[in-house]
Amino acid sequence: MVxxxxxxxxxxxxxxxxxxxxxxxxxxxxxxxxxxxxxxxxCGTVHTMTSDNIMKRIAPIRVLSRSxxxxxxxxxxxxxVVTLCSMxxxxxxxxxxxxSDNEDTLxxxxxxxxxxxxxxxxxxxxxxxxxxLRDSVGYGEISKKVVKPLKGLKVSPYxxxxxxxxxxxxxxxxxxxxxxESLVESLGAELxxxxxxxxxxxxxxxxxxxxxxxxxxxxxxxAATKRGANSLVVACPLCAYNIDQQQKxxxxxxxxxxxxxxxxxxxxxxxxxxxxIKINHFNDHFINPEPLLKDLGLTGRKKT
Amino acid sequence: xxxxxxxFGKEEKDFIAKLEKISGENIYSCYQCGKCSAGxxxxxxxxxxxxxxxxxxQIGQKDKVLEANTHWVCSxxxxxxxRCPREIDVAALMEAIREYCLREEPEKVKISEIPQxxxxxxxxxxxxxxxxxxxx
Lengths: 304, 136
What we know:
The structure holds two protein chains of two kinds. Chain A is an alpha/beta fold. Helix content of chain A is about 40%, strand content about 10%.
């Protein structure tokens, strides 16, 4: 059993509980356990692109430093901190790269960390859980653990921005990724390709410019349903919230709009691997995926 | 875009130098191919497209740049940055304009004016990222 230091980030404890619980359950099944690091703080969610602001870079480095300490308590743990949220993944990776390239920045940040008797020595690597699944576990191993192939589920992968941009943080080719596609296929679901797989959902504009998000979500969902998808798979809690919640709002005003459930990739894995349905926390979803799963005979109780 | 006068007084030069310092990019690397705007998923919501805004910076039209909504509609998805043939971090330039504004006037979003129920409903990932981008 390999154990990974796992950094949850803010949303996995609130809106995306199903994402975290299913990820931990499947990670144990795949002998690559995600163990939550103690005493973590928010990474800041978005990376600052300013060249002159050290303050906004301290939080992610603190996470890396604490994770470095955490791996000493773990079994066979590589020097890696694993994230589920794609925004955390991107923020941590970019800052890690910046301090590796720029000793001066690291010295300044370490000076700030000194107060808490912490320091960072550029010896951690940030990995998204999808990278662990692809590079360390392998799709073959995942297929072997599938007890309930997701037959009838027509899934369209939606990457969002932060898994593929920028260069320092991408987990796959930015224009032609295939990590979610391969994963979905290894679970026995049907793959539906959509050209809008990384068409930004509007991200944080949901707070003060909801109309932008609404228009983006309409396009993203329609591109997928037009090609026959009956669900979307995502890796980002903000994409998931925006698409899920906006679909409900859009269907209230447009009768022709057909909403489809949004799954985290780990939820699909948990369903296929026969984990109990309640760890998915489907009650947190706005478009309930259960009717669809029931129709396809995937809700836990075996069809007789 | 209609013909614009080129302005290079002290104020404009300072503005350009400040944007270059914050972003760490050279504004004159841009040769106006338009690839950033072509791939931008928000171009239809911007009153000036991304390359138009960069052009306005290049010719020192500070007021027109600051009046535009472009940098506030940009959500830093970084599609432009990964595609730019001149390897300019275009999204960092947008961030530099936002920062320029926020360092003068730190509340693009007034947190105290967001209704309580919205604050309770929205996920923390949305709130934190919004406030990081729209407050100084």
